[in-house]
Amino acid sequence: MPQIDDRDSGAPAGAPTAQTALPPVGARVLAFVAILLAGAAGGTIGYAFADLQTTGDSSVWTGLGAILGALIAAGGTAVVVVLTLRAMGEWRTIKSVNPDAIDGRRRTPPPSGGVRQQPRVR
User: Fold this and answer.
1) 39 and 73 in contact (C-beta within 8 Å)?
2) 92-to-17, 83, 98, 115 alpha-carbon distances in Å
3) pLDDT tens per residue across span 2-36
4) In sequence order, which ranges of the chain are alpha helices (DSSP H)?
5) Between 31 and which of 24, 81, 102, 114 could a Cys-Cys bridge form, CB atoms 3.0 to 4.6 Å apart?
6) CA-to-CA separations, 83 to 8, 31, 57, 90, 118, in angstroms, rounded
7) CB-CB contact of 66 with 40 (8 Å)
């Protein structure tokens, strides 16, 4: 059975490749680790907060505090991570379409249409 190479799209060698909005693998791994760490920190804080509020042996309430803290922290971090990854994708798209957007300066003079000329002083 011949092996199928998914990388070969059949397009000519000089043809432009399709761009993807998918962030790099390293950024996705870092985002996943950040969500896990935030969940662990939120769980620890939630456990400590519930443990301070309860008296005696109330493991159910401290466990619920830990779970609730972990969910809130991981959820909040996930929102920030998703927005960051989307911004990275948009920035990569902008850079590929307009390389001058990297440093914010124009390398070509602006078109004369619609640009106000310097006033003449007498």
Assistant:
1) yes
2) 15, 14, 10, 29
3) 565 555 555 566 656 666 778 889 999 999 999 99
4) 25-53, 59-97
5) 81
6) 32, 11, 41, 11, 42
7) no
Cα separation of 49 and 22, whole Å? 38
Angle at 104 between CA 102 and CA 107, to 5 degrees: 90
- Distance of alpha carbon 27 from alpha carbon 39, whole angstroms: 18
From the list 57, 53, 56, 49, the residue with the least C-alpha distance to 73 is 49
Instruction: Break the chain into its structural domains and give their ranges.
Output: 25-96
Is 44 exposed, middle or buried (CB count within 10 Å of its CB: 0-12, 13-18, 19+)? Answer: middle
Q: Which amino acid is at 46?
A: G
Q: Using one digit for the tens of pLDDT, what is the confidence trace for 27-84?
A: 999 999 999 999 999 999 999 999 999 988 889 999 999 999 999 999 999 999 999 9
